């Protein structure tokens, strides 16, 4: 999920801060003003929104606000707000969901649409376009999913919490890249590796959702979803480039998926692969949709999701809660399982000659990337909500995810600093540094 920048790290002039920058300019144009302050304010906002750190900072801030609201300011009322039912039920239409479900099943579909478009782009022209390019991130993703799952299973085998094995398998790309950008003397190739690995990792998480967290199926609605998807592919083949056509088909696909028993967010991924990719230039529909969703997803959708799902009321027993099998499995899976799995599988791939380390990337850098892969946050919380219906298990899992993501962030940044000693800072290509 390249929520902050493309894999190649470049942005054209047309691609820079489209909606945010113009929105600010129009706001200040509506009132009497001095041109100098306007330029300062818009430049500050522009620099902030273009920063790779921005989305990570927003998510961190939203999480802190959510925890404060739930524990110090509003309390249980804040949590209860997201459980209120909103929507309507009518003849043939059933759309009365809790606020939390609207966010998790509705808004997050937009997030997964962007994920799908990014995966599509990488498959066609990016880091996943050849076996040679994709092999090391592929091995990293496999190791980063298998080891955390096995660690969680070792702690929870035969227990009701065994279904949480998918929780430590996920990586939050926005947070991981945000923390990576805080490091000094980071090779640009490491960012490419971490991004590609996280894309494959998220694809694995999507498959986990589809195969392991899908409940009873409603065949009629499933056929309806397949019908809408087929129509979208047909429009693609007929070279239909009107975005509203795919929006309408996407809404139908989403509703049928919601009612079918397959998690509704998968509609976003399916729609992404049905949309015309073309040659991937700035005129293609796929590129334009990515361009339109890039900042809204990073600065609206994900923060709202974090606000709704991290409002955990921390009890006096929080420390002992982190010592139960489920919490230990999640924390050790993310903090230890991720880097161990990534290093083991990458080491095997390099030793057998199947892959090689990217330019300027050392094994120390790879270890740092593996630790940052343990930042599960939004994706792990998302799978938690699918894995458990019990509120106690859900809250314990969220606490474990927050603790593990915090530990992984600090450790990853420390190892990154250690690995970067006496190395040039090449996080961005030289020609992109102004």
Automatic annotation (TrEMBL):
Q: Would you tell me the Gene Ontology cellular component terms?
A: plasma membrane
- How is the protein disposed in the membrane? Multi-pass membrane protein
Is Electron transport tagged as a keyword?
no
Principal location listed in the UniProt entry: membrane
Protein role: Na(+)/H(+) antiporter that extrudes sodium in exchange for external protons.
The residues that cross the membrane are 54-74, 138-159, 165-183, 192-213, 219-236, 243-275, 295-319, 331-354, 366-388, 400-419
Reactions accelerated catalytically:
Na(+)(in) + 2 H(+)(out) = Na(+)(out) + 2 H(+)(in)
Name-wise, this protein is Na(+)/H(+) antiporter NhaA
């Amino acid at each position: 999920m390249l929520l902050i920048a493309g894999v190649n790290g470049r942005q054209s002039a047309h691609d820079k801060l489209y909606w945010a920058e113009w929105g600010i300019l129009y706001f200040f144009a509506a009132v009497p003003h001095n041109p100098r302050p306007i330029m300062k304010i818009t430049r500050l906002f522009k620099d902030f929104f273009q920063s790779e750190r921005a989305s990570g900072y927003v998510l961190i801030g939203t999480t802190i606000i959510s925890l404060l609201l739930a524990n110090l300011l509003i309390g249980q009322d804040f949590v209860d707000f997201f459980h209120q039912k909103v929507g309507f039920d009518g003849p043939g239409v059933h759309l009365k969901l809790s606020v939390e479900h609207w966010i998790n099943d509705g808004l997050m579909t937009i997030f997964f649409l962007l994920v799908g478009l990014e995966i599509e782009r990488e498959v066609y022209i990016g880091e996943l376009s050849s076996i040679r390019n994709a092999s090391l991130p592929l091995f990293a993703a496999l190791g980063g999913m298998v080891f955390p799952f096995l660690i969680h299973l070792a702690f929870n085998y035969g227990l009701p919490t065994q279904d949480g094995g998918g929780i430590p398998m996920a990586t939050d790309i926005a947070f991981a890249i945000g923390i990576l950008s805080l490091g000094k003397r980071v090779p640009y190739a490491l960012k490419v590796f971490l991004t590609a690995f996280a894309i494959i990792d998220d694809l694995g998480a999507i498959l986990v959702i589809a195969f392991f967290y899908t409940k009873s199926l409603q065949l009629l609605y499933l056929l309806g979803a397949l019908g809408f998807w087929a129509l979208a592919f047909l429009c693609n083949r007929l070279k239909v480039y009107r975005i509203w056509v795919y929006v309408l088909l996407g809404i139908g696909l989403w509703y049928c998926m919601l009612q079918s028993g397959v998690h509704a967010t998968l509609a976003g991924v399916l729609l992404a692969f049905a949309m015309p990719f073309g040659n991937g230039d700035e005129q293609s529909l796929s590129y334009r949709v990515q361009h339109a969703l890039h900042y809204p997803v990073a600065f609206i959708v994900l923060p709202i999701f974090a606000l709704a799902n991290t409002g955990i009321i921390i009890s006096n027993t929080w420390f002992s809660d982190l010592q139960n099998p489920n919490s230990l499995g999640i924390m050790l899976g993310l903090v230890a399982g991720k880097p161990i799995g990534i290093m083991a599988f990458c080491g095997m791939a390099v030793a057998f000659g199947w892959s090689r380390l990217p330019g300027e990337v050392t094994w120390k850098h790879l270890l740092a990337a593996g630790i940052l892969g343990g930042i599960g946050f939004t994706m792990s919380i998302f799978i938690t909500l699918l894995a458990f219906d019990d509120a106690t298990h859900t809250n314990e899992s969220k606490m474990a995810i927050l603790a593990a993501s915090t530990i992984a962030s600090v450790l990853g940044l420390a190892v990154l600093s250690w690995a970067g000693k006496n190395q040039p800072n090449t996080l961005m290509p030289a020609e992109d540094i102004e």
